[in-house]
Design goal:
By secondary structure, this protein is α/β, with parallel strands linked by helices. The protein has 19 helices and 23 strands. The chain has two domains: 392 residues, Glycosidases (TIM Barrel, Alpha-Beta Barrel), CATH 3.20.20.80; 101 residues, Immunoglobulin-like (Sandwich), CATH 2.60.40.1180. The two termini are 20 Å apart.
Length: 501
């Protein structure tokens, strides 16, 4: 069994929506200075190490105006807010005009003061880095147009959704919108050119500057700037109007420069398309585990268990989540019972644990990040109660720094295949403390025997204390290691046992 040295937990907050709600309570325009110590204390008590304040950077007027006028986005905004008004739309925080904290939120000094306060609660701050594109009104459009992927009048005619003509001091110029290769361009962005060596140097300097203001960066769509992906997306277009053409990877040198200046800094990659391992190899500390999320949503233990048994060095660098600002709310995707079972599987696994604002309360409405307001929702007592118990258990240092092993359930009765529904994992801490997570990840009642590979419980009576409920069970260690723990559980049932010797 491999030992995990740490399991950081991160909590995501939609900064603009949260401050808007806070401002209503305070009857004033709230900034980062107004975030109460009570929130920070609550997050620290729940066991979080990082708070990701989504969307603090400057959003330009152009991006905001596009969000307010783009007809294809309006319906999703109204689905969230039936009484939508223009002032509710602040623009995408991923169409960044400048890496300065928006003055509406209090500016850079306000962020520095918040970060200093957070240190008193042993909390670290995570911010956004959006490497693939900028806002249309970013200053580089005037000062360094060669930093962007350029186009022609013919591109405007043939791919109007992917290109835009901009009037500047250098005359009319055609730029590509930022995009990934499988979708049309994002109309409030311009595509940066990663095959321009001068640009890479400047972007690395920007990265160093913003890293000095926080403790971790969540890098948006990090795989888009991998040379292989960038070449596939833009091909020869990347050489057009580019006097500093050079094909080299951005991440390794850029990440190393930050880590040399700031030891212990954390890089988190939003990553898809099975490129997680490549990004880890290029220096990322953690990469999104979208595969596990998708399998928990749509598949069964036959695919989930092998996923959890992936190579250890890869596995311990994955970001485990059940929702985030890009996904539907977990309370909408899963039934309450299934969400609890999925949460136990997800957050008992190795890696970085990622929780989203409202997830613990069981919110169901997915709010667009273009909005600075969201509807009020009632919390789910069932979901909140479950997460409160789970978080208490997970913040135990013996779970945070422990060995992890996925176990094999055995058939309990002839011709009964329900044992295949079980997902079970064991953690053993450095002082021998044992935790056992069990989920019947299936839509029906299931039975199994679960042998425990723990030699030091032989010839002893042990207590199985359920951290998610009130029950305790006495069991003989010899039976647990040979025949196994007998389980008879309802659909989506789960236990998190602390095994007391």
């Amino acid at each position: 069994m491999e030992i995990e040295s740490s399991r950081p937990a991160l909590f995501e907050i939609n900064t603009r929506a949260y401050l808007n709600e806070l401002g209503i309570k305070l009857n004033k325009k709230a900034t980062l200075d107004d975030i109460p110590d009570s929130l920070l204390l609550d997050l620290a008590n729940k066991g979080f190490d990082f708070v990701w304040f989504l969307g603090v950077w400057q959003i330009g007027d152009t991006g905001r105006d596009i969000s307010r006028s783009n007809q294809s986005w309006q319906q999703s905004f109204r689905d969230c807010l039936c009484d939508l008004s223009q002032k509710d739309i602040s623009g995408s925080p991923f169409a960044i005009q400048s890496y300065k904290v928006d003055s509406i939120l209090g500016g850079d000094d306000s962020l520095a003061r918040l970060r200093n306060r957070m240190k008193g609660f042993n909390l670290k701050i995570c911010l956004d880095f959006v490497p693939n594109h900028t806002a249309i009104d970013n200053p580089w459009v005037e000062s360094n147009p060669d930093f962007y992927v350029r186009g022609t009048e013919k591109d405007i005619e043939n791919q109007a959704e992917n290109y835009i003509k901009i009037k500047s001091k250098n005359g009319d110029q055609v730029f590509a919108h930022g995009r990934d290769p499988y979708f049309p361009g994002w109309p409030d962005t311009l595509q940066l050119n990663y095959f321009n060596s001068k640009f890479q140097q400047e972007m690395s300097s920007v990265l160093n500057k913003i890293a000095s203001q926080c403790d971790a960066l969540r890098c948006d769509m990090a795989m888009l700037v991998l040379s292989s992906v960038f070449k596939k997306t833009w091909g020869e277009r990347s050489s057009f109007g580019n006097n500093d053409y050079s094909v080299k990877e951005f991440w390794p040198a850029a990440i190393q420069a930050v880590k040399s200046a700031i030891p212990g800094f954390i890089f988190i990659a939003e990553a898809y398309w099975d490129l997680e391992f490549e990004l880890q190899q290029q220096g990322f500390d953690y990469t999104y585990d979208k595969r596990l999320y998708d399998r928990l949503c749509h598949e069964n233990p036959d695919s989930i268990i092998p996923h959890l048994r992936a190579d250890w060095e890869y596995n311990k660098k994955l970001v485990r989540f059940l929702e985030n600002h890009d996904e539907e709310r977990a309370a909408k995707v899963f039934s309450p019972e299934k969400q609890c079972a999925a949460a136990l599987v997800t957050f008992f696994a190795p890696g970085l644990l990622f929780f989203h604002e409202g997830q613990i309360e069981g919110w169901k409405i997915h709010a667009s990040i273009h909005l600075n307001r969201r509807p009020k929702e009632e919390k789910s007592d069932y979901i909140t109660s479950f997460y409160s118990k789970l978080l208490i258990a997970l913040k135990n240092p013996e779970i945070k720094t422990s060995a992890y092993q996925v176990l094999n359930a055995r058939q309990a009765f002839e011709n009964d295949q329900s044992f295949r529904q079980f997902i079970c994992a064991l953690r053993i801490g450095s002082n021998g403390n044992i935790s056992l997570a069990i989920s019947n990840y299936g839509p029906s009642k299931a039975q199994c025997f679960l042998p425990l590979p723990v030699p030091n419980i032989k010839n002893k009576t042990v207590i199985l204390k359920d951290e998610l409920g009130p029950n305790k069970y006495d069991r003989e260690g010899n039976k647990l290691t040979s025949e196994g723990l007998y389980l008879d559980m309802p659909a989506w049932g789960c236990h998190l046992f602390k095994i007391i010797i």
